[in-house]
Amino acid sequence: MSGRKQFDVTAALDQAMRVFWQRGYADASLDALASATGLGRGSLYGTFGGKDALFRKSLDRYASTYGAQYEQALASRPGEPVRAIEAFFEVVLARITDPSVPAGCLIAHSATQAPILKEESSAHVRALLDIQRVRVRAALADSAADPRVLDELTTYVVAVNQSLAVLSRAGASEAELRAVVGLTCTTVADTLARAAREEPARVGAAPHQSSGPGCT
């Protein structure tokens, strides 16, 4: 065995993730990252490849930790899209109100700093948001609503999720956040119910709309 000090790479990455989560990319200095991880600057570069690479690894660590929970919640109610969205937001609220982790959402916080991120890191943030969109859209797919309506609802749900993170960092109470979630779930349910009522009428009207002068 060599005399080099051994360290837990995953634990160091978790600490770096918290620094980016609390401070944002811009204010996560190398000194702060080194202090949190217990690594010198040279070890940070040698292990993770520099601040930008460490930032992207931290994003992936965050996404794998919470993304799995989101995916499980969204898939927990097959055939019940509204219940799936409710389950999704319960996971979101559990994270936001957990006093053991920083406020808000690392991805949401990073998205607000996109203009100052390097292109590769900015694209990484967008890709993680796209993954969330795909998960939410899949949960809404068990509906009679027009695909365009489902796409719009997906954007709405993802936007509300990101706004919850911003509100929580601004000091919004759990009651206020739950009020937003309640209204969001009601909007999703009402939109899907209206779409379900309108779809038979639209389908039934189609043959009549296709006939016209000169048709036999």
From TrEMBL:
Using the record's annotation, list all stretches that form the HTH tetR-type domain: 6-66
The yes or no answer to whether the keyword Transcription regulation is present is: yes
Output the InterPro entries linked to this UniProt entry: Homeodomain-like_sf (IPR009057), HTH_TetR (IPR001647), Tet_transcr_reg_TetR-rel_C_sf (IPR036271)
Q: Which UniProt keywords apply?
A: DNA-binding, Transcription, Transcription regulation
Q: Which residues bind DNA?
A: 29-48
Superkingdom, according to UniProt? Answer: Bacteria
**Protein name in UniProt:** TetR/AcrR family transcriptional regulator
